[in-house]
Batch of 3 targets.
Target 1
Amino acid sequence: MPAGSTRNIRWCSRHAPSSRRWGSSPARAAVPPPPPVSSTAAYPAWSSASPAGATSTKRTRRSRSNRSSRAWHSWSAFCWRSTEVVVIDIDNWLQSNTFHHSQFWDLKRLVEEKERQGLQISLCIPTLNEEKTIGKELVLFKSELMDRYPLLDEIAVIDSGSTDRTREVAAAFGTDVYLSSEILPEVGSKRGKGENLWKAIYQLKGDIIVYVDADIKNIHPRFAYGLVAPLIYRPEIKYVKAFYDRPLATSRGTRPLGGGRVTEILVRPLFSLFFPELTALVQPLSGEYAVRRELLERLSFPIGYGVETSHLIDTWTGWGLEALAQTDLDRRVHRNQPTRDLGKMAFGILRAFLARLRSHGIVPDLPELTPMLRQFQSRDEHYEQVIYEIREEERPPIIEIPAYRERRGLAD
């Protein structure tokens, strides 16, 4: 490809949804029903994410000394793992490990396969002052994915100390509600979403844990089943991320696209430079994902903004891109954050990212980083500086915590 040229590569993950959808547009034709599950391949053969003749992600290894002679092209990523170079065909991964939620419309069959494997699935909703939306989410998930289709074995709210009625509303709907500060009290309490996610691994019982944010205004069962289904049908997949269109609210109304600003301005360029395989993830910062416990318990957890980015880097490092997958959930509507808050988020993500560069030996001599972020805001015709201290503390893999090992019956 000539220098400076561009090429539109169209890989289709958005397939026709079933006509059986909760409150969604019937603009596309229905997906044909799947064939029965075979004993040799649980994943539906009708999934266009696994087209006929497709092969698994191609990987070849070359020495560092040959890297200067290689041509780069838009659909391959050349990545360094330890002292080896791994060449990944991104297009193959996008075809084999990218799904659309409508591929999993047959919830009866999904539940049957889950029960055949003897899996338990827990839904965790981390909260902080979400009284306006938490009730709707709980009603929907309980009615559709516990009562009607018993896909979820457990729904729990892990709260950071809400000052509104979030916990009262959640408890009124019969949901298990936990204060993060009261889980594993022997390790202390820290403030942040990552803390809730980490402590949920201890508190919940599922072999698969699916995390869903509490502020989704267009909540739908697909936000859970679309993420756990690839784990049920594909045993080699361990971590499934959501992606979707994200409308952006502006002073002139709502734009249909434009959300995910930190991803495109910060995270994607960083991944392109240091972890190009991970650029295959459409929305690496999405707050919805499902993970097998066997992987989750071995991940470190930044307690703040860096948890999603760090998870992807650590999963890629330990298990490879083939352990990751993503599901298109169509659209997600939630409150957009102001630019100043996005700046704090970006700062926290960058600190966690740079810490990974140091720990993985990519930039081993990185100096200690300041936790101070300086911003300016306009007040009465002058600017005032505001300084924030943002530290990305981390929790260790929870499998290293003695109380967790005892609770799970793991040998020392």
Note: The first strand starts at residue 59 and ends at 62.
Target 2
Amino acid sequence: QQVTAYIAEISTDYHDKGIELVEVASGYRFQARSYLTPWLQRMLQDKPTKYSRATLETLALIAYRQPVSRGDIEAVRGVAVSSQTINMLEEREWIKVIGRKEVPGRPALYATTTQFLDYFGIKSIQELPPLDEALLAKLAAMDEETLLDI
């Protein structure tokens, strides 16, 4: 309770400053206030890493559907998921293997990590924005197929 009081006091101290104390999945972090983003981007001049559509789709499916196997992702996307895509997401520590699916071949089950939540500035996956209706329909169809396989 004393720590909470200190955190509140620190937040108050920085209320009118260019940085703020924000709660994220792994605890708290200081970050620049959003109104400073245009100026900070000009100062840094580094281009942010660009991710392919396949990488972003794979990450989104893992985030919204976790735990999920590579086969599950491929069923929704309709194309194979490259090892390079999975490896890159694991190297960024945005996803990890959390178990094995109880089917022949025992494929890995992937889920997002605390680093994923921290990077996107959220405390839990419940804070992710709502899914597109077309994708929801595909996920529902995937659930029905999974139930039929059992």
Note: The two ends are 48 Å apart (CA to CA).
Target 3
Amino acid sequence: MGLLATVNAQLLTIVLIGLGSVAICSAAARVLGGSKDPQSIVLDEIAALPIVFLGITPTGPAVWLAGWLLFRLFDITKPSPICRFERLPGGWGIMADDWAAAAVACAALHGLLWLDRIAQWGMFAVAA
């Protein structure tokens, strides 16, 4: 299976998980008192994490850790324009800032892996 087929499968999975998560997060926020983005809801982080690794090959523990750390950095600090997505209503607002943080983390991870290859650092080398 080629990279394009793999990325298409990843995208389909991300969209299906994302749409289901919007509905679940909307319902959970209502049950929890209608807060904009209750901290007790962690499904948004879990559902957004696959976006970080979209199109990333090869993978291994160092890549997974770097991706997760980048995602958490952007999710916690919420630099602009990521913070603007929280303004969306209901589950969309709960999920969208995490999607944006994951997309930025994905771009950063692709860049880091590219630098690792070009500079031959070997930080993310995966044994064959």
Note: The chain has one domain: 3-119.
